[in-house]
Each structure stands twice: as C-alpha cells, then as structure tokens.
Specification:
With 214 residues, the protein is mainly alpha-helical. The chain folds into two domains: 94 residues, Cytochrome c-like domain (Cytochrome Bc1 Complex, Chain D, domain 2, Orthogonal Bundle); 88 residues, Orthogonal Bundle (Cytochrome Bc1 Complex, Chain D, domain 2). Helix content is 53%, strand content 2%. It contains eleven helices and two strands, in the order ααββααααααααα. It has a two-stranded antiparallel sheet with strand order 1-2. α3 packs across α4, α3 packs across α5 and α8 packs antiparallel against α11. It is globular and about 50 Å long. The two termini are 27 Å apart. About 13% of the residues have low confidence. The structure holds heme C (2 copies). The site of one heme C has 27 residues, from α1, α7 and α8.
C-alpha cells in the first residue's frame, strides 16, 4: 500500500505540473492589482467565513484557512474547467485571471482560526483509527499516509484539519457525482476508490475526527 500511495502522489504531482503549465500559458501577464485582490478576498469571506474558518449556511462552506495554496488553486481550476461541478464556485471562479487565482490561493495559508466545530462526538475514536490505520479489509488506506499525521496536507493534497464536518461528509458521499467530470483524468481519481469504499457511518466518524484537528 505504501509503495502504491507514493506512486499515486507522484502521478498527482506530475498532473499538477501539467495543469499549472497550461494555466500560466493562458495568463495575460498583467499582475493583479492589490485593490482588486482585497475586494475579491472580502467576497470569498462572505461565504467562507471572516477568517476563512468555513460556515454552515444553506450549503456547507468549506474552511479555506490554512489550506495548501496548490490545492486551492487546483480546485479553482477544476471548478472553471467543470472537472469539479459546482454552480456557485463556477460563477465565482470563472471570472478570475490566472494570476488572481494564485494570489487568492496564497492568502489563506496564513490564517489559523479555531475549527468551526459542531460535529457529533460519539465516534471520534473510530474516526481516529480510520485516519491513522485505514480499513485494510475494506481496501481503505490510512488517510494520514497522504494527508499527513496532523491532517495538514501538502501541495495538491488538501488539509483536512478543522474542516467543516457537513462539508467533508458531503464531499466523501458525493465524490463521483461532483469530481472528475469530463474526459480528463485529474487528481480527484486518487480519492475515488477510498471515498467509494467507506460506509456512511465510517465517513461520518472520520469527518468528525478531522473536524476537531487544529
Ligand atoms: C456565494 C458563496 C461563495 C463565495 C462568494 C465563494 N465561495 Fe468558494 N465555495 C462555496 C461553496 C458552497 C463551496 C463548496 C462547493 C462544493 O460543495 O463543492 C465552495 C468551495 C470552494 C473551494 C473548494 C474547497 C475545498 O476544500 O475543496 C475553494 C478553493 C473555494 N471555494 C475558494 C473560493 C474563493 C477563493 C472565493 C473568492 C474568490 C470563493 N470561494 C467565494 C461558496 C462560495
Ligand atoms: C493516496 C493518497 C490519499 C489517501 C490515502 C487519502 N487521500 Fe484524501 N485526497 C487525496 C488527494 C490527492 C485529494 C485531492 C483530490 C482532488 O484533487 O480532487 C484528496 C482529497 C480529499 C478530500 C476533499 C477535501 C476537500 O477539502 O474538499 C477529503 C474529504 C479526503 N481526501 C478525505 C480522505 C480520507 C477520509 C482518507 C482516508 C480514509 C483519505 N482522504 C485518504 C489523496 C489521498
């Protein structure tokens, strides 16, 4: 499993390099003006929370605080190219220039608010076990192998620590209907079997566990 994971990560990194190369080629080369960036950030925070901590509105709004910039940028591109289908974030992202995407993605790394909280606490021990050891009998690898022992992620692998519970549950339950759409294979394929092999109660346990990680 270890060897397989490392190979998948390498594939992910290679894909990411290919995607960023295409993105920058299309850039007009005009740097984002500071004022423009500030206004955009304020807009992001009306949904994602004043300090990027996430929010539970009519839809769960994911935490962006402390998120890996490479991951944020990759996901904004996926929304724009409709590899990840979400009408709200398509509308938000498709007007942004490539240099603005990079500037926005970088901003959130420095924010460190407390987790949003509110997840049920009944199966935190089960969630911790799944996170640290996986479920070998169900072909589920340890989440920590890729997302890191503290759930902070790296590069295109997202931070899960402190993520809004309802958002994580929704992503893992609906993986294949939202991500990896269209014909291009992207980094979302790495998570598809894992999301598929978790039962609903296992998803809820691991989502609750990571939601409390700081
Ligand atoms: C109108 C509300 C709204 C606004 C404004 C908004 N977002 Fe979002 N954003 C959402 C929702 C809802 C989701 C979850 C989408 C889903 O379920 O896939 C999301 C998802 C994301 C994700 C994916 C996060 C992850 O963990 O995969 C990123 C990145 C993101 N938004 C960045 C931004 C940025 C940057 C801005 C400002 C330019 C912004 N958003 C503005 C509502 C919003
Ligand atoms: C082989 C590496 C790997 C393993 C193991 C792994 N993940 Fe992931 N995970 C990824 C990658 C890469 C992404 C980004 C997918 C994309 O680009 O859409 C991701 C994305 C996610 C997301 C979406 C986060 C967001 O902000 O939208 C969740 C939730 C997630 N993983 C949970 C888990 C859980 C829970 C486990 C363990 C049961 C796990 N992952 C195991 C590589 C991995």
């Amino acid at each position: 499993m270890k060897v397989l994971s490392v190979r998948l990560i390498l594939q992910a990194v290679i894909l990411a390099v290919v995607f960023s190369a295409t993105g920058h080629a299309a850039d007009s080369g005009v740097p984002a003006r500071q004022g423009g960036l500030e206004a955009k950030l304020e807009y992001c925070k009306t949904c994602h929370g004043l300090s990027g901590q996430g929010y539970l509105g009519y839809f769960p709004m994911p935490r962006l605080a402390g998120q890996q910039p490479e991951y944020i940028e990759a996901q904004l591109r996926a929304f724009i190219e409709r590899r990840r289908t979400n009408p709200i974030m398509f509308n938000v992202a498709h007007v942004l220039s490539p240099s603005m995407l990079t500037a926005l993605a970088t901003h959130f790394r420095g924010l460190n608010p407390k987790p949003f909280g509110g997840a049920p606490r009944g199966s935190l021990a089960e969630g911790k076990k799944i996170f640290e050891e996986g479920l070998p009998e169900a072909n589920v690898p340890a989440c920590s192998a890729c997302h890191g022992t503290e759930g902070k992620g790296q590069n295109e692998i997202p931070r899960l620590a402190g993520q809004v519970y309802a958002y994580t549950v929704g992503q893992l339950r609906g993986w294949k209907t939202e991500r990896g759409q269209g014909s291009a294979v992207d980094t979302s394929a790495i998570m598809a079997p894992t999301a598929h092999n978790l039962t609903r109660s296992q998803v809820e346990a691991v989502a609750a566990y990571v939601s409390y990680l700081q």
